[in-house]
Every structure is written in C-alpha cells, then in structure tokens.
UniProtKB/TrEMBL annotation:
<dbReference type="GO" id="GO:0016788">
    <property type="term" value="F:hydrolase activity, acting on ester bonds"/>
</dbReference>
<dbReference type="Pfam" id="PF13472">
    <property type="entry name" value="Lipase_GDSL_2"/>
</dbReference>
<dbReference type="InterPro" id="IPR036514">
    <property type="entry name" value="SGNH_hydro_sf"/>
</dbReference>
<feature type="signal peptide">
    <location>
        <begin position="1"/>
        <end position="25"/>
    </location>
</feature>
<feature type="domain" description="SGNH hydrolase-type esterase">
    <location>
        <begin position="33"/>
        <end position="214"/>
    </location>
</feature>
<protein>
    <submittedName>
        <fullName>Lysophospholipase L1</fullName>
    </submittedName>
</protein>
<dbReference type="InterPro" id="IPR013830">
    <property type="entry name" value="SGNH_hydro"/>
</dbReference>
<keyword id="KW-0732">Signal</keyword>
Length: 233
C-alpha cells in the first residue's frame, strides 16, 4: 500500500498538473517551465511566473513545476511524478525554451541551509562542469531547446525563513552564472536584487514564496530575456 503522505503528494501533483496539461495540450506550447514552488506559486489562479511569461509573449507556456520539488530527490514513485525536477522534463518532447527553477528546497529541506557543501556540489560543482543540474541542462540542450535558469528572491532585510539561506543562495547562483557562460544557449536570470530593503510586497505571507506582484514582474523579466535572445518572438 502507498503510505498516506505519499498518496496526498501524488494527488496534489496530479491535481496541479492535469488541468493545465489538458488545457494546453492542443495548443502545443513551445515553452516549458519546470521546477519548484517559485514557478508553481499562484498557478491555481493563473498568476504564476509561467502565466506572466505567457501573457508577456502572447503564447502558451506549459508549467510542470511542483511545490516541494528538488534537484536531488531519492523517492522513486513521487520522484517520477515530478518531485524530482529532472523528471518534469521528457526527452521525447520538443520545445524552443525550457525555464528552470530549483535548488532552494535542496538547501532548506535537505541541509537546513547549513553545511551544504556536499549537496551543492552534487547539484553543481564550483567550476560548473559536473552535477545533476549539468546533466539536466545537457539533456534539454540535446533536444535543441534553449534554457533559462531562474534564481531566487532574497528577503527584504528583515526576519524571514529564508534569511539564513542567503550565503548558500549567493554561492549556488554564482555557479549557475558560470554554467550559463559555458553555453550560448543557456541563460541565468538573477532576481537577487529585485526586492527593495524593507519592502514586503514581493513576498507572500510566509515571506518565502513570491507574491502575485513579484510573479508578474519576474515573468515579464524572463519574457524580455527570451525576446532579446529569440528574434522570432
């Protein structure tokens, strides 16, 4: 039997993915979004980052991101359902662009944003040549798609659950920037400086996830990046 907590996760994943996949199946979107809650947040009311990208570009974006998903995830069943971010991408499919978020839960839930060197290296080494993220990006690039890896919000210089993750976030995103330098088809977009000091309006009540305002702005920024890089849009 499936333990109850796994059953709940499976139901949530299916509930979150099925309506959007069904609605967009006939439109054959050329942009895919995968990742964690940064991308999934506000999807239920069509206000996620992916929704903002779609609105800005005037084309559908398929959003497979799942809250709680990680880069490193060991449970096979729920991992296959998408809680392992690499499983949200399917090699047989073809897209022009794939937008990725991921790594935050690996730090917060995997190592508590303390003594995370081993976990970070497993995701992405300092020279950006090895790691699970390198493997995922390589898989995507082999299909011809270009990649945008999106960084994370920072807290507005006030108490929040993510304040202790700042050093890990900075180090991780420096590696992502290095990864992007190695391939003209890979882009890293930082939102580390998006939140003004003392401004709580870019976060939800939990001070972790983006507000609707932030999701809209981030989506517009990613869309602008895609437009600059892709003359066909």
């Amino acid at each position: 039997m499936i333990p109850r907590f796994l059953f709940v996760i499976l139901c949530f994943a299916l509930w979150g993915l099925a309506p959007h996949q069904a609605a967009q199946a006939q439109e054959k979107p050329k942009i895919l979004a995968i990742g964690d809650s940064l991308m999934a947040w506000h999807r239920i009311d069509d206000k996620s980052i992916a929704d903002s990208i779609a609105a800005s570009l005037g084309e559908p974006v398929l959003n497979r991101a799942i809250s709680g998903a990680r880069i490193i995830y060991g449970l096979p069943l729920t991992g296959a359902m998408g809680l392992r971010i690499s499983n949200q991408f399917r090699d047989r499919e073809r897209y022009d662009w794939v937008i990725i978020t991921g790594g935050g839960n690996d730090f917060m839930l995997g190592c508590g944003c303390a003594r995370c060197d081993r976990r970070m290296n497993k995701m992405l080494t300092a020279d950006a040549k090895q790691g699970d993220i390198v493997s995922l990006v390589a898989r995507i690039r082999q299909t011809g798609a270009r990649v945008v890896y999106l960084g994370y919000l920072r807290s507005p210089d006030m108490d929040s659950p993510i304040e202790s993750c700042k050093d890990e976030g900075d180090a991780f995103e420096a590696r992502l920037a290095e990864l992007a330098k190695r391939d003209k088809g890979v882009f890293f977009h930082s939102i580390a400086d998006l939140v003004p000091s003392g401004d709580r309006s870019f976060h939800g009540l939990d001070m972790i996830h983006p507000s609707r305002k932030a999701s809209k702005i981030i989506g517009q920024q990613v869309a602008a990046l895609i437009k600059r890089a892709d003359s066909g849009r």
